[in-house]
What does this fold into?
Amino acid sequence: MGPSGSGKSTLLNLIAGLDKPDSGSIIVQGIDISLLLETELAKWRADNIGFIFQFYNLIPVLTAFENVELPLILTRLSKNERKKHVLTALSLVGLDDRMDHYPGQLSGGQQQRVAIARAVVTDPVILVADEPTGDLDRLSARDVLNLMENLSKSIGKTIVMVTHDPRAAKKAGSIMYLDKGVLADVPQTSFQECV
Amino acid sequence: MFLKLLFRNAFRHKLRTFLTICGICVAILAFGLLRTVISAWYAGVDSASATRLITRNSISLVFPLPISYKEKIRNIDGVKTVSAASWFGAYYIDEKNFFANFAVESKSYLDLYPEFMIPPDQKSSLLKERKGCAVGEKLAKRFGWKLGDAVILKGTIFPGNWEFIIKAIYKGSNKNIDESQFFFHWEYLNETMKKHVPRRADQVGFYMIGIRSPDIAATTAQEIDKMFKNSYAETMTETEKAFQMSFISLSQTILNVIELVTIIVIVIIMAVVANTMAMSVRERMSEYAVFKTLGFGGLHLAVLILGESLLITSLGCIMGIILTFPAADAFLGAVGDYFPIFNVSGDTIYLDIIASIIVGIVAAVFPIRQAVSVPIASGLGRIG
It folds into this structure.
């Protein structure tokens, strides 16, 4: 958690291999990902990271099914196997009945659930979520948080989440606070004031 | 899936894509028509035979050669057939009714030019009739002439009213043969000249020479010219192709301008497509960032963008090619008198396709570079 501009998303991008540090190293699962080449990093991301964005970032011209199938195109799975994986992921988020809908035909909460299905479909090691409830109403936010909690508990996914939302933070096993680029176990004064 | 995405992306902004496709279609249509105009100019060169030589006066085509040269040329080793002809330069009723008309030695001429196809009965009828003439099917259609019709041409180089009877209507053996020519017996011209202007009798404009093989063209031409060196009418002999090219070189500047315009048309449409692609990619930058986040590399993005660009240009190209044919017909209807042969050639279609592929590729280069090089975090558009 942390105030706006504290560097939460930057930290998340670094952990997920979306960005490279100016100095230092980032070690994830024993691999210094800051040393990987762009193509190696892309493959590493595909194999290890599932990313959930605040604004869902689904591809508008693809259906829910196709959006979830997208990361599987990079794997060696056959079409049938891909279909099986996509259906499993969509039923996990409770949207198997909406698989032929385009993002524009889904509510914000449903779109975020499709995004979660897309993030988990490759069975990544870490799920990285950048303010996943930031664009949702209270009810939808609650559903998404419950879903993420279930994923963490039922299939043992590590979720690294950045949030402003104290309700989201309550679901976390461990909370770290970031302020002006400094990470701490307890919130800094400015953030406490902000909350 | 990639193909599906490519198609859906291409038609995401239907109006913009439609207008871009229309732009490409018009550009390809203009490109195709201009290339066809250039091809029409070269039609005579393309249909020239490698086993035919043309001998003319070395000063200029305007100056005649004596008919006595004919037998001398025939005796040169390698020469199979010799025919003589003169540009007649007459018109029908009004000067605007222009068409090519020649006085030829009909029998040898038809032997030398089998591409002018005349039915045997018409051919024998033509050869028997002193005032007989042969006209191309297109020319006959233009003036509504039929076999047996009497036609009067008004002479310019050979003044007076010249009466002819249409004894043959020829067809071209292929679509590159000019079917708008008019030719009649040189003997008829010569006899009239003998009677009225004797100093212009026994003269021809040029000789057409059939040789045994294309390999001996250069040596035979040299031998002919050598034979008449230091005579009062020195000759210049060249292949039929070179002879035709000498006419084209007179209008080379116009052809260069037309070629330049074809290139400009392509460059303009390249800019239009590049603009469309750049706009599309800029709008989708966050989607490309998502692709990268999911593990897709630069090559995948390049395929998506290039594919979309090529799809749009291909559709425009196909429409342009389809429309080129009726447009060429309409063009021919309007200016057919100046372009007796105006066919959309296979080469023009290939050039259309190549031009659209080049446009598609070039238009995609900058957007690809943009999409591939933008950092994921910037592409996603926000850093907390």
Remarks:
- The domain at 8-194 of chain A is CATH 3.40.50.300 (Rossmann fold).
- The helical segments of chain A are 8-15, 38-48, 64-69, 79-92, 108-120, 138-154, 166-170, 189-194.
- The mean pLDDT of chain A is 86.
- The first strand of chain A starts at residue 27 and ends at 28.
